[in-house]
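Q: Here's a chain of 390 amino acids. Please give me its 3D structure as tokens.
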Amino acid sequence: MNTKVAELPEKSVTILFCFLVALCEGIDLQAAGVAAAGIGAEFKPTASQFGTFFSASTFGLFFGALIGGRLADSIGRKKVLIASIGVFGLFSLLTALATDVRSLTWIRALTGLGLGGALPMVLALVTETCAARRQSATVATVYAAMPMGGAAMVTTTQWRVVFVVGGVMPLLLLPLMAVFLPESRAFQRQLPSTAGVKAGSVIGLFIDNRARQTILLWFSFFLELLLLYLLLNWLPTLLVNDGFTKAEAAGAQIGFNLGGVLSAVLVGYLLGSRFQSSGIVVIFIMVPVLLVALAQAPADFRIVAPAVFVLGCGILAAQAFLYGLAPVIYPTRIRGIGVGAAVAFGRVGSIVGPKLGGALKAAGHGPSQLLMDLLPVAVCGSLDPDEPPP
């Protein structure tokens, strides 16, 4: 009993730090979109340059997730997490000093490396801190901090301030985490690999009956983030084109993020309760149904705003479920690379999504038709991998 009581503060500290890191990630992931108006006014970038700027951090995220995940299985979660938040905090600050679009783009790519390395570590640390029956639930609850950070961002013409805020917060956390964040005990208890799967082995993701789960996890991450980022980037434009004011479109976008916060907390509860299986089924059926409902809704803000809010609940609930599931699929020795690879495939979807939305809009698809075009993506994204037995 005394041992358990002594461990409680350590677990709480780990979860608190992971929550704060996820909050910082949510702020920084939304920073480019929030700062776009001010950047456009100062640097006058072309549409192509803007597209490259928006994609830069995502490319960094892809490589950061793979590299960070691989290193974490070899040298530890804490070292990689601290290095990652140092990188994205530093380069977020440097973004505020950019003098042209080219330097802005390169700095955002380097910021993405840090962001990509941090997220798999948050998922792995929370999983390895909690009791087995609470792992997925706690990860999903911590994930709620990401849309919470995004919802806190407000569009401003003072774009440099956005990146200063996004850089100062993680850098303030860094020394505190260096002193007080414990390393994962599950990682520390590992024995040196003399036989079987090596630490950080990509091959390990496909052996011992994990191949099907790994492929389905990558597939689901790709499609869910494709859908999420297409809507984050294009939903305000679609609403304005449908006759709503910019203020109404911005309000609906905030509602989308707030719906994500609430749904992630709800998913955390469901994954730790007897309603786990039925809750997951409802979430993945809910997304395509809500897309159809929004596509067919009349151009009335009193109807569309609640529909967007509930759609945010559904899409981000599905995302929270995937984040909660990914770490528990893999054993400790390959958990870092397993989660990192899933996050990296999701980031490919986040690159494809906005480009797909642009292509559909350029082809003349109106708001309702474009939303209906996403229905197959939502249905296929509901093919979630099976959760391993507890």
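Q: Can you summarize the key feature?
A: The chain is about 80% helix and 0% strand.
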